[in-house]
């Protein structure tokens, strides 16, 4: 075959490289009396002519390049040429044979559809880093070429296959990807280990949560959620998002979550918890900020009291299917300092569902954030079922997939409307205490009657009356009006609570033998499963204790 009849459109840099190869390969003819070029230039004062690229013999150039080169022609892709580098890599290939049979390595790489496409379109195509049967990786460039007929026209079409060995680059890239995968797995493991392994389940709420890490192209962030039972039937709910990615964000998230649980034990209003958390966030890392929403549910109030530090609004769907958005008040993110957070509230009556979430659920690069929140509202309006079912439906409706570009945390809580036999397990009774010497006997008589009507066993009845007597006596001695006694039973516990107008919180202390007082709280702490106290929003305090119900009584 006359190879010089084929003209190949090589890239400019490859042509120049080929020209340099041709020049370097030219033999030094000093033995036949010729003068070296540099010396000749000195003797004659003239620069010898440099051959043009068009004058170079294409076959000699391709024979010498280190890249793999093969030329096929015709609709059957018959082999017209393979260079020495190709032969060294894959062995001798017979000319004139169909490439599908004679070049099985190209078939294994899936290049024949590409050859057909290049031949039809007349445009070059490139595929990067394909691993060949010899174990090495190549980048293939397929370029159309035309065979001249000697009269200025063309009598055939072919394809020049040019393969560059990129094994070192491919292996380095794979090592980098493996390192990134290990780092991501470490961050995901840390993130999941810092999240609650099992959610606390309050008596009055049904709760579910889900966490989805970002895809492989996005490092894990610092999203978190938590559920904290505060005692006295109250529950704290937390959702937050540490800005940033990777292990550092997950570590900061873990510190903030631990701090929230510690502050929650103080039973402070939501805005005071965020105020403490704001100062701590600045101490942990002044360069990282976080958003957080902290809410408290009290079944006696029928609402969710919350505070937000730059976080997205809580959504609540009521029993009629209407979705409410808790927009205000919202302060700046944690760690910014210099802001006094405030608390707000949103109704959460029986039959309602509330959703707390992070921005990965609603934020998209090509859409406004308000559009994402509005879409979530529409999805929540039609999402029914258990909290876990609602979680899954909201995540699906938001289009969250394993390759999502941000991590997502969702916390769903339901305040079920109980009817039938189940409603008998959730009862309330309250008594206003007017003070005076008759207050304590009246409170004991009220508690005894209520506990009897609730059919508690005798031992639990007596312990409940004793705890009521001690809490009321403590309020009469150390508190101020107005005073109120509240008894509440759930399917798992009996709760006794006394409120008054004084904000001094009692503490358990050891009474000396000669002391006439100071034993009431100690007695309550001894006989009850747990006890505690907190300041009430309007001023004053509440002191409470709980008794776990026997299993048979609870059911």
Descriptive tags:
34% helix; alpha+beta; 555 residues; disordered N terminus; 6-stranded antiparallel beta sheet; elongated
Structure notes:
Helix 8 (167-194) packs parallel to helix 9 and helix 9 (246-264) packs antiparallel against helix 10 (270-284). The protein is elongated, with a radius of gyration of 40 Å. A hairpin with a 5-residue loop joins strand 12 (314-317) and strand 13 (323-326). The strands form four sheets. Strands 1, 2, 3, 4, 5 and 6 form a six-stranded antiparallel beta sheet that branches. Strands 8, 9, 10, 11, 14 and 15 form a six-stranded mixed beta sheet that branches. A five-stranded antiparallel beta sheet has the order 7-17-16-12-13, with helices on one face. It has 16 helices and 22 strands. It has helices at residues 12-25, 37-44, 58-64, 84-90, 99-102, 104-108, 112-121, 167-194, 246-264, 270-284, 369-381, 387-397, 439-453, 458-478, 520-527, 551-554; strands at residues 6-7, 68-73, 78-82, 125-131, 137-148, 154-165, 206-212, 222-231, 234-242, 290-298, 303-309, 314-317, 323-326, 330-331, 344-347, 352-357, 408-415, 427-433, 483-489, 493-500, 530-535, 541-548. Helices cover 34% and strands 27% of the residues. The longest helix has 28 residues, at 167-194. The model is unreliable at 1-35, 37-41 and 149-155 (pLDDT under 50). The protein has 555 residues and is of the alpha+beta class.
């Amino acid at each position: 075959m006359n190879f010089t009849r084929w003209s190949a459109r090589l890239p400019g840099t490859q042509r120049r490289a080929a020209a340099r190869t041709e020049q370097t390969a030219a033999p030094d003819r000093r033995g036949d009396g010729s003068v070296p070029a540099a010396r000749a230039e000195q003797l004659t004062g003239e620069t010898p002519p440099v051959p043009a690229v068009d004058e170079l013999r294409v076959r000699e150039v391709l024979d010498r390049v280190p890249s793999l080169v093969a030329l096929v022609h015709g609709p059957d892709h018959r082999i017209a040429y393979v260079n020495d580098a190709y032969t060294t890599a894959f062995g001798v290939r017979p000319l004139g044979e169909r490439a599908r049979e004679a070049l099985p390595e190209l078939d294994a790489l899936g290049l024949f559809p590409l050859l057909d496409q290049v031949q039809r379109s007349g445009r070059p195509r490139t595929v990067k880093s394909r691993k060949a049967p010899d174990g090495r990786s190549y980048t293939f460039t397929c370029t159309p070429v035309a065979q001249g007929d000697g009269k200025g026209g063309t009598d055939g079409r072919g394809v020049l296959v040019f393969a560059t060995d990129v094994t070192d680059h491919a292996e380095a890239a794979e090592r980098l990807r493996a390192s990134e995968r290990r780092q991501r797995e470490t961050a995901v493991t840390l993130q999941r280990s810092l999240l609650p392994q099992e959610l606390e389940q309050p008596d009055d709420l049904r709760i579910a949560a889900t966490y989805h890490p970002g895809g492989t192209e996005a490092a894990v962030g610092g999203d978190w959620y938590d559920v904290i039972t505060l005692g006295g039937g109250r529950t704290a709910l937390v959702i937050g998002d540490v800005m940033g990615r990777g292990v550092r964000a997950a570590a900061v998230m873990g510190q903030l979550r631990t701090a929230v649980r510690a502050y929650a034990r103080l039973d402070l209003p939501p805005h005071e918890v965020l105020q403490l958390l704001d100062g701590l966030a600045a101490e942990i890392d002044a360069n990282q900020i976080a958003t957080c929403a902290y809410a408290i549910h009290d079944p006696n109030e029928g609402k969710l009291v919350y505070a937000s530090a730059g976080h997205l609004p809580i959504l609540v769907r009521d029993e009629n299917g209407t979705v409410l958005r808790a927009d205000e008040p919202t302060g700046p993110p944690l760690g910014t300092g210099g802001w006094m957070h405030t608390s707000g509230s949103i109704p959460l009556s029986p039959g309602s569902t509330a959703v707390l979430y992070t921005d990965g659920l609603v934020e998209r690069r090509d859409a406004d954030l308000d559009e994402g929140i509005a879409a979530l509202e529409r999805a929540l309006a039609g999402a029914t079922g258990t909290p876990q079912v609602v979680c899954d439906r909201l995540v699906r409706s938001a289009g969250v997939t394993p390759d999502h570009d941000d991590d997502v945390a969702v916390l769903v809580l339901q305040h079920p409307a109980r009817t039938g036999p189940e409603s008998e397990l959730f009862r309330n009774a309250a008594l206003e205490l007017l003070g005076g010497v008759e207050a304590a006997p009246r409170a004991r008589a009220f508690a005894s009657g209520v506990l009897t009507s609730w059919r508690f066993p005798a031992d639990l009845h007596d312990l409940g009356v004793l705890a009521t007597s001690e809490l009321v006596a403590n309020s009469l001695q150390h508190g101020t009006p107005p005073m109120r006694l509240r008894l509440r039973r759930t399917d798992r516990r009996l709760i006794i609570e006394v409120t008054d107008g004084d904000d001094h919180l009692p503490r358990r202390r050891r009474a000396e033998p000669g002391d006439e007082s100071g034993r009431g709280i100690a007695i309550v702490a001894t006989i009850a499963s747990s006890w505690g106290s907190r300041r009430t929003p309007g001023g004053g305090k509440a002191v409470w204790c709980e008794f776990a119900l026997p299993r048979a009584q609870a059911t």
